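Fill in residues.
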Protein backbone atom coordinates (compact mmCIF):
# COMPACT_ATOMS: atom_id res chain seq x y z
CA UNK A 1 0.00 0.00 0.00
CA UNK A 2 2.85 2.39 0.72
CA UNK A 3 4.25 1.82 -2.77
CA UNK A 4 0.99 3.11 -4.23
CA UNK A 5 1.11 6.19 -2.02
CA UNK A 6 4.71 6.80 -3.00
CA UNK A 7 3.88 6.42 -6.67
CA UNK A 8 0.96 8.83 -6.29
CA UNK A 9 3.27 11.33 -4.59
CA UNK A 10 5.85 11.04 -7.39
CA UNK A 11 3.19 11.52 -10.06
CA UNK A 12 1.75 14.50 -8.19
CA UNK A 13 5.16 16.09 -7.74
CA UNK A 14 5.94 15.56 -11.43
CA UNK A 15 2.69 17.25 -12.41
CA UNK A 16 3.40 20.13 -10.05
CA UNK A 17 6.89 20.62 -11.48
CA UNK A 18 5.69 20.57 -15.07
CA UNK A 19 3.06 23.22 -14.38
CA UNK A 20 5.20 25.33 -12.04
CA UNK A 21 5.93 29.00 -12.50
CA UNK A 22 9.07 30.18 -14.35
CA UNK A 23 10.91 30.47 -11.03
CA UNK A 24 11.45 26.71 -11.30
CA UNK A 25 13.62 27.15 -14.43
CA UNK A 26 16.58 24.84 -14.79
CA UNK A 27 19.18 27.59 -14.38
CA UNK A 28 19.18 31.30 -13.43
CA UNK A 29 20.57 32.26 -16.84
CA UNK A 30 17.65 30.59 -18.63
CA UNK A 31 15.19 32.27 -16.27
CA UNK A 32 16.54 35.71 -17.15
CA UNK A 33 16.17 35.20 -20.88
CA UNK A 34 12.46 34.51 -21.02
CA UNK A 35 9.49 34.86 -18.64
CA UNK A 36 8.28 31.33 -19.56
CA UNK A 37 10.00 28.03 -20.12
CA UNK A 38 10.48 26.99 -23.70
CA UNK A 39 9.18 23.60 -24.83
CA UNK A 40 12.77 22.37 -25.13
CA UNK A 41 13.49 23.22 -21.48
CA UNK A 42 10.28 21.49 -20.39
CA UNK A 43 11.38 18.33 -22.21
CA UNK A 44 14.86 18.53 -20.66
CA UNK A 45 13.27 18.91 -17.23
CA UNK A 46 11.06 15.91 -17.88
CA UNK A 47 14.02 13.79 -18.97
CA UNK A 48 15.88 14.77 -15.78
CA UNK A 49 13.11 12.98 -13.86
CA UNK A 50 13.51 9.71 -15.79
CA UNK A 51 16.59 8.24 -13.99
CA UNK A 52 15.12 8.66 -10.47
CA UNK A 53 11.81 7.20 -11.68
CA UNK A 54 13.60 4.14 -13.10
CA UNK A 55 15.61 3.75 -9.89
CA UNK A 56 12.51 3.80 -7.67
CA UNK A 57 10.59 1.47 -9.97
CA UNK A 58 13.43 -1.07 -9.89
CA UNK A 59 13.86 -0.70 -6.12
CA UNK A 60 10.15 -1.35 -5.53
CA UNK A 61 10.22 -4.35 -7.89
CA UNK A 62 13.25 -5.81 -6.09
CA UNK A 63 11.52 -5.40 -2.73
CA UNK A 64 8.39 -7.15 -3.96
CA UNK A 65 10.26 -10.05 -5.54
CA UNK A 66 12.57 -10.55 -2.56
CA UNK A 67 9.78 -10.89 0.00
CA UNK A 68 9.28 -14.38 1.36
CA UNK A 69 6.04 -15.87 0.15
CA UNK A 70 3.85 -17.46 2.76
Amino acid sequence: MTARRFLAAVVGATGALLTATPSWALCPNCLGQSPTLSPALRIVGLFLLVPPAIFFAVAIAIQRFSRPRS
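The mean pLDDT is 75.
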